[in-house]
Amino acid sequence: MFSKSDSFSRFMGIGCCSCFGFNVQSQEHLLSDYESDDGGDYDCERTDMTNGSYAELQSPSKRSEQIILFRIQTGKICREIPVKETHLVVRSEDDSGNKMVNEYVREFKIGSGSYAKVVLYRSTIDGKRYAIKAFHKSHLLKQRVAPSETAMSDVLREVLIMKMLDHPNIVNLIEVMDDPNTDQFYMVLEYVEGKWAPEGSGASGGLEDTTIRKYLRDIVAGLMYLHTHNVVHGDIKPDNLLVTGSGVVKIADFSVSQVFEDENDELRRSPGTPVFTAPECCSGITYHGRAADTWALGVTLYYMVFGKYPFIGDTLQETYDKIVNNPITIPDEIDSQLKNLLEGILCKDPQYRFTLNAIAEHPWVLGEEGPIPQHVCRCKRNIF
Q: Which reactions fall under this protein's catalytic activity (predicted)?
């Protein structure tokens, strides 16, 4: 799923934030998933908030399972080829002494985090490379992320959500390996080996406008697909946006994502990354997941343009204060259409913030390419 580069070292929420070819400040606690000391509103645990006592009594994983099962029964799953489920795991070595998991031969470690490590493997069946995310179930079950949930609940929800997704701008889950007789749990993911643009290649220290527009169109297409299917990503940021060798952006890491039954995407806790947190998420009250995803997209766009974040302080609280109170700063020499786009996406009031549809139809996004190509889902929904 990741190339062997520094840009990918934060797969599970730790490491650098040098994606898109930039080096940034060292406030790593602001650039990674934050867990507050008092279990406050900005930790890494999943949100389990919709209005109504029935929803509050159920775990998010259980609700996700029920929603996805209902979609399967009603033919609203996009995947034509289902995720392979394997319940026998054999660990061995090939003739050269390389470690193997079933038919996959280990090549090298890509990254690691608090819950998992990610290793590049090559399949002996089709010869392709895959990124395998490996967990220890015993460790996940010990990690409490909410009063009624463990980290295992998080992982299972991530799997459930990825099982229903099929879009060219979203990383594909290929196989899940879960042997009841072993402690290992594996997610076999599409390997995306991308090359990022040179650092500071753009006029303002960021990427070139043509590259930014291309990346943004891909991200918008993937996000529109998710939101149309009532999935909120929850952690849109450069680290979770991978680029293929041909320059296609794919959204990755659904570890804090949520799936909803309908258009009601109300959440109460923000599990994302501090510098990408929307202003309404800083208040500790309910907010709408789609609008929060859109804000994070705006911060990502700002980062692509300028090579820095629009709101960041020396401490977590200072960062949140700036997100809520400080006006966005955009140099006058920036293209007027791009400035309008940034101001619209980074509008602090979610009621007036640009929607994904508005972004997709914005003149700067259209450029010379025109409308973002439509993607027709197997479930018959028309999306970008």
A: L-threonyl-[protein] + ATP = O-phospho-L-threonyl-[protein] + ADP + H(+); L-seryl-[protein] + ATP = O-phospho-L-seryl-[protein] + ADP + H(+)
